[in-house]
């Protein structure tokens, strides 16, 4: 139940067992622990700093695959160019476009929760991570337009790079909610748990 008394709407994203991710988080609540906030990252593909390097590099890599493919189709040595050309092409296309599609797919399957005691992250059926709220330092990074917030719990509040293959922080000592839209509700929930 939400703070205002209304019922939570369970996520339409189902895991392998057919239950929604929101229900999966709710099922992991302890004893008298209450769910204070439930949300997720913005599923819209948003650029991060590494994208400004990886997208052009991926396009150059894909363009570089044209030389081995041209040699292959012009009757050159078959074995090395039959492997190198498609490998460069696939690697370049993934770096330029595939990562963004995968990131969006993962964001749609990631849920964040704040309870009276812990912060939780569920990513599909693969992982459920938790962090205590009352003993770890927290910091907040707002987007330039103010419509998103990243909450960093632990790691002395220093930002950690996002592992785009798991939607979790690359550093194990850092727990973070990345790119949460409409940050006011999350920040209010975190402020309420700090006061307890």
Compact summary:
Helix content is 37%, strand content 24%. By secondary structure, the chain is an alpha+beta fold.
Which sheet architecture does the biggest sheet show?
Answer: 4 strands, antiparallel
Strand order of the largest sheet: 1-2-3-4
- Please estimate the helix content: 25-40%
State the separation between the terminal residues, measured CA to CA: 19 Å
* Fold-level CATH name of the largest domain: PH-domain like
Broad structural category: alpha+beta
How many individual helices?
5
Q: Average pLDDT, to the nearest integer?
A: 75
Described by its quaternary structure, the protein is single chain
Architecture overview:
This protein is α+β, with helices and mostly antiparallel strands. It has 2 domains: 21-40 and 111-195, PH-domain like (Roll), CATH 2.30.29; 51-104. The chain has helices spanning 21-27, 51-64, 66-73, 78-108, 183-195, and strands at 35-39, 110-115, 118-123, 127-132, 138-142, 148-154, 162-163, 168-169, 174-181. Strands 1-2-3-4 form a 4-stranded antiparallel β-sheet, sandwiched between helices. Strands 5-6-9 form a 3-stranded antiparallel β-sheet, with no helix packed on it. Strands 7-8 form a two-stranded antiparallel sheet. Helix 2 (51-64) packs antiparallel against helix 4 (78-108) and helix 3 (66-73) crosses helix 4 (78-108). The longest helix has 31 residues, at 78-108. The model is unreliable at 1-18 (pLDDT under 50).
């Amino acid at each position: 139940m939400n703070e205002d008394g209304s019922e939570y709407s369970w996520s339409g994203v189902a895991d392998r067992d057919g239950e929604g991710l929101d229900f999966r988080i709710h099922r992991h609540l302890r004893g008298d622990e209450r769910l204070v906030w439930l949300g997720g990252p913005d599923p819209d593909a948003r650029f991060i700093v590494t994208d400004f390097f990886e997208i052009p590099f991926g396009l150059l890599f894909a363009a570089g695959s044209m030389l081995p493919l041209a040699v292959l189709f012009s009757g050159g040595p078959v074995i090395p160019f039959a492997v190198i050309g498609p490998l460069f092409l696939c690697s370049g296309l993934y770096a330029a476009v595939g990562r963004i599609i995968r990131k969006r797919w993962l964001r749609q399957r990631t849920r964040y929760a704040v309870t009276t005691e812990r912060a939780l992250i569920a990513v599909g059926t693969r992982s459920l991570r938790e962090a205590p709220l009352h003993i770890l330092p927290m910091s907040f990074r707002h987007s330039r337009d103010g419509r998103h917030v990243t909450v960093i719990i632990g790691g002395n509040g220093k930002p950690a790079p996002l592992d785009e293959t798991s939607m979790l922080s690359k550093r194990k000592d850092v727990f973070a909610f990345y790119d949460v839209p409409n940050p006011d509700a999350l920040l209010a929930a975190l402020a309420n748990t700090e006061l307890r």
